[in-house]
Amino acid sequence: MEPVDVALAVFGVGALLAGILPRVLERRPLSMPIAFLGLGMLVFLLPVGLPVPDPLRFNSLATHLTEIGVIVALMGAGLKIDRPLSWRRWSSTWRLLAIAMPLCIAAVTLLGWWWAGLVPATALLLGAALAPTDPVLASDVQVGEPTDVEDSEDEVRFALTSEAGLNDGLAFPFVYAAIAIASTGLAPAGWFAEWFGVDVLYKLAVGVGGGLLVGWLLGKLFFRAPSQLRLARHAEGFLALAATFLAYGLVEVIGGYGFLAVFVAARAIRSAERTHEFHAVLHDFAEQTERLLTVMLLLLFGGALVGGLLAPLTWPAAAVGLALIFVVRPLAGWLSLRGAPGRPAEHWVISLFGIRGVGSFYYLAYATTKADFPQAELVWATLGLVVLVSVVMHGIAATPVMQLLDRAGERTAEAAEPGDPRTPAPAAATG
């Protein structure tokens, strides 16, 4: 029995289940990621000769597989958001990025150093790798396919989708700070100036600018070119991959953040012709590709778990990971959303559903190919625990919580209709 043949058969079963399970599990307290994680654990426990998918041993492969998974998910996330980009209408997103994410990084870094005993560079890497919420595993709490209605999305799904779309790129400067400290030492004189000038200012600017330019040019080609070249007429979904790899590759070649460029390019394509049905075609193809990649990554993650990924875990490190899920992210998210649009219940749901996943694996795999981090095995084990708990907990809770929230929103909307007997009368004027 050849391991390659077994792997192909397993992936075929996984791909088939990827088409079946979303319909079977719909409106049930069980997510597709949980099912595939369990399948991966089962397959790699069987004596079929499959090698253990150890991310430390196959570091480069882990980096590129997770990289592709993230960028395809970012394209899908950018295409499916209906709400036009603006400072006021995206206020929840800006708060989560500017307040919640740095607070989470700082808290995990401090806990990793003080509580888990990690050296400063490794503690910062743990905080940075766990910073981004995941666009790959969070489909149950994200917006649906593109529509013609700009305000069709509730605040919870919009905030979680847009946050996941942007923080995968915005966490990169913190990863580079960890790499710089691991390479040159903790003293800021050895790394801060270059880090701030290149890794923060230059790469962020190139990521945003390059994404806008690629998206604008593709928008022209899709919707404004002469009729024989107007690609939107042909409804070919694979062009979503062309846009993804073009934005990512070009921006990475000139030294920018490709993750950021992909999401920005998707938003620029969407804004080129906001209500065109071609957006749904692009999104559907990106989503199907993302689902296949998710199947593969979850099967491998399940195999890594049963292969000993969590073996180096210590109780203090486990406590740091659990603190992020149950204390740090909920509190940081709630504080950042004070005064933001939405009801208090919606703010709490946004804060609680900061799902960690494939993006975190990418950052850790990438960083460990660029510098030598002490205690890397412990960081991988901690991250594996966080993703495992996040997949299971959020996968079970997502459907019932979103159903309750939707019903509450419907009751609120009904009560607010003019003439509804439950609508409170206007207060009398005073003074």
Supply the key terms.
single chain; 431 residues; mainly alpha; Na+/H+ antiporter like fold; 15 helices; 69% helix; disordered C terminus
Summary of the model, kept short:
This protein has 431 residues and is mostly helical. It is built from 15 helices and no strands.
Describe the structure.
This protein is mostly helical and 431 residues long. It has one domain (56-140, 152-412): Na+/H+ antiporter like fold (Up-down Bundle), CATH 1.20.1530. It contains 15 helices and no strands. It has helices spanning 3-24, 32-45, 59-80, 91-114, 120-129, 155-170, 172-184, 192-223, 239-253, 258-272, 278-306, 315-336, 344-352, 358-370, 376-415. The longest helix is centred in the C-terminal third of the chain and has 40 residues, at 376-415. The radius of gyration is 22 Å and the shape is globular. The protein starts with a helix and ends in a 16-residue tail after the last helix.
The third-level CATH topology is Na+/H+ antiporter like fold
Which residues form runs of ≥5 with pLDDT under 50? 419-431
> What's the CATH class label?
Mainly Alpha
CATH architecture: Up-down Bundle
- Assign a percent range to the helix content: 55-70%
Question: How much is the radius of gyration in Å?
Answer: 22 Å
Task: State the distance separating the first and last CA atoms.
Answer: 86 Å
- From the spread of the alpha carbons, the general shape counts as globular
Mean pLDDT: 88
Largest sheet, in brief, is: none
Class based on secondary structure composition and strand pairing: mainly alpha
Q: Give me the number of helical elements.
A: 15
Sequence of secondary-structure elements:
HHHHHHHHHHHHHHH
Number of domains: 1
How many beta-strand runs?
0
Q: What percentage of amino acids are in beta strands?
A: under 5%
